Amino acid sequence: MLKNWQCLVVLVLLAALVYATDAEQDQQRILDTIQYGIETQVVDLVAQLRVRNDDFYNTQLHALLLASRSASLKIALLDFFAARKAELATAEAVRIITERFDTTATLVQAAFNYLIAIQADAANEQVSAIINGNEAAFLQPAIRLAAESGDASLVPVLVELYAEPDTITAVKEQILLALGKLPAEGSFTLLSELLSRDSSSRIEQMYAATGLGNLGDARAIETLQRAAFSTIPEVRARAIDSLSNFDPLVVEAVIIEALKDAHVQPRLAACQAVGRLGLTAAIPFLGFRIKFDPERVVREAAIAALGRLNRPESFVLLIIFLEDTQNNLTYRSKAFLALVEYASGQFDERLDTILEASMAERDKAYFNLLARGLVGLDNLAAVPFIRVLLAYSEYAVRLNALAWAERNVARVLRPEIEPIAAQDSVALVKNKAIQVLARFDRADE
């Protein structure tokens, strides 16, 4: 027994030494690629770092952004910083927009997309100039940026531009979306008029309903409640979605009524609204929807809503549904994931039994659904089940579980990952485990 223990200690120490060496080599390879790599190599690297949610090399990537003369490389780097919500590229993005007439339109668009992603107001002067000058090439991204940066001073200009007969439909739609994010009397007035007016188009009513919900002005409740019974299903759905931004006691009855709507979109919006507002009175309706709704998206939304309600009675419905083997495998897997995400471990023992049983089945269809769902669930509540996947016989499952651990920086899984880095029989899995451990170390620095 002592000899086995001593061997285990030696193995762990050896694994740590090998891991440290490989991790250092991987880090140096990345730094060398940033500094010396050709454009396609750097673009591929940036894509990998984006998937890994890795910000460790942001300083070096920012330096490359400033030094590079390649529009395509700058676009890739701006897209990366946008995805990571990293603000260090703000000045360069503003410079690109300022010099928009002397650079490629795709690079200018990437600069706008970046500033929109981080909701920056640093380019407000240029945005104002583009909107006031009606610069067609960049008008739509400028309006989007005005909305995300919260520059309500532009509302009068946007309202005036909307009324211009020459303003194209795409720009009008962008204006309506923007007004919903710019709290001002002009925004509320135009959106309310469009939603109430019978002559408004379907698109105008839809965007107006969404905008009023985003503004959150309680004066809009009555208008939205009327719109929830519109003859246009898409407008009903948007109105229901927007009502979920208001006092549950005021809007509950209309939202629950929409759970019985004849059209799929309002029912879907109602399920989502119930979850957001915590309308426990809707639990019996959701219990019916998960079993008998004719549309897959509504059933799945009802399952998610029952989880999000986070009530004992909603969890009971989910566990009963999950354990009934007569139910569809896909829907049962959704119930499993909802319980993992929302039940705070209350049912982990039963869920673990279900996962283990699915692994033992000859037909792996149910297990594959559960495994794919778990590695797509970016929530640390999934850790107990990711442990199971890390020990699974098929290397692709282990690989996906490692990717989950890296993406979620799940340091708690280090004891399970270190042996994989030391001795997994598949080189691809072993190398990925080394990479994940290196990510944990960088996150601790």
Strand content: under 5%
Query: How do the helices and strands follow one another from N- to C-terminus?
Result: HHHHHHHHHHHHHHHHHHHHHHHHHH
- Low-pLDDT sequence parts: 1-19
User: How many whole angstroms does the radius of gyration measure?
Assistant: 26 Å
Can you describe this structure?
By secondary structure, the protein is mainly alpha-helical. Among the domains are: 97 residues; 89 residues, no CATH class. 73% of the residues lie in helices and 0% in strands. It is built from 26 helices and no strands. Helix 1 packs across helix 25, helix 1 crosses helix 26 and helix 4 runs parallel beside helix 6. The longest helix has 35 residues.
Topology:
Blueprint lengths: L1 H35 L2 H13 L6 H10 L3 H13 L6 H9 L6 H13 L6 H9 L6 H11 L5 H9 L5 H11 L5 H12 L5 H14 L5 H7 L5 H11 L4 H11 L5 H14 L5 H10 L3 H14 L2 H12 L5 H14 L5 H13 L4 H11 L7 H8 L4 H13 L6 H10 L3 H18 L1
What's this model, at a glance?
Helices cover 73% and strands 0% of the residues.
Output the keywords.
mainly alpha; 26 helices; flat; disordered N terminus
